[in-house]
Structure formats: C-alpha cells, structure tokens
Predict the structure.
Amino acid sequence: MAILSAHAPEAQAALDPTPLLAQLLAAHGLPCQEAKGWLLPQGQLPAIGAHWTPGENNGRLDIHVLLENDIRLMESFAGLGAGREGLNDALENFSANVLHVLLAGLWGVRDEAQVTERRWEIAGRDYMAYIGNFGLRGAAERLEQALFEALFRQATAALRAETLSGDAHWTRLFFCNLNGEFVSEALLDNQRWEAGLSLLGALPWPAAQGYYSLRHFMLLRAV
C-alpha cells in the first residue's frame, strides 16, 4: 500500500488548486476526501493532487496521481494569464486533455464522446487502453483530418509495439507550432519516448504564422 506524503504535491498557502480540483471531480460524480494535500475519490486510492506554480503572466499546473504499488503519474499544463485567471486556464487545459482518460481508466466514470476504450495484448499481457481525444489550442482545429488520423494510428501502433510489463503505463504526445518553429515532446511513463518523438517528427505538420498545438494522452491498465 502506498503511503501518502505531505510533500508531493506540496501544500500551497497562496493559490491552492486542490479545492478547485475537488469541485471538478465532484461535478463528475466523484466526491473526495482530502489527506495531506491529496484527494481520495471515494476515500481510497488512486489519489490525485495538484500543485500550481505561478509566473508573471502565466503558470504551470502539475497534476499528480498516486496508484497502488507506489506508481506515480504526473502531467503538467500551462495556464495563460496571471493569478486565478492562469489557474483556471490550466484547469481547462487539464479537463480537455487528460481528465476524462483518468476518470474512465482509474474510477470507471466513462464518457464515450471523450475516451475510446480498447483491449490490447502487449508483450504477452492484456491491457485496457483508455485513449483520449486530441486536445487542440490555437489554430489546430484547422489541421487536416488526415493528419489526426495518421497520428492516432501511428501513436497507438507505437505503444502496442513497446515491451511493457507494469500494471499501468501512460503516454503523452505534444506538438506545437509558433510562427513556423516546431516543438515536440513525447513521454512514456513520464520519461522521454523515442518512438513517440520519431512519429511526431515524421508527420507533415504545416508551418504557419501564429500558434497552434496538439496534445494527446493514453492510459493502460493491466487486466
């Protein structure tokens, strides 16, 4: 059994995202108990917590999830704006990109419009895959459908080709264009994912003035 510790995530006196996260979960039918900065939906693991790091005109929201066997998942979200405005924007970013995958994969709160579920065999072990929608910002909604289809197909194939053995695994893909300059990130279990970076680099992303970004999250649970 994992032990909850007060230092991850850290308590915050100024702008604490924990009450807002609790409200968000309760709105999806998950009342929570709080213990040492963690929220325990239905009073048991998995636990979830949040930490807000403010900047002058933006900030970063870190979402931590603590599973059985001390498995720890972390996802970070930018929030545009100062103070509460930035935190609210980051929470919206979390809600659009990851929340529904966690709800389905960890707590059985399913929304078929938000999450696709598949049963896969990977390296001889059966997993349920919880596959989120693409989270889009800026002009990303104007990208061609064929690009989304290729990314979805290649990302799921790359994950299924990995040698996995744990009870839970997760991936995050991120791509952004800023005035024709590209930034890519791919993580598997919070670590750099070479296969994900390769597939992002091979896709025909259009260079454009302004900003657009795409984010995708998948969660595997052993069955």
In short: The radius of gyration is 17 Å. Residues 6-13 have pLDDT under 50 and may be disordered. The helical segments are 18-27, 84-107, 145-160, 194-202.
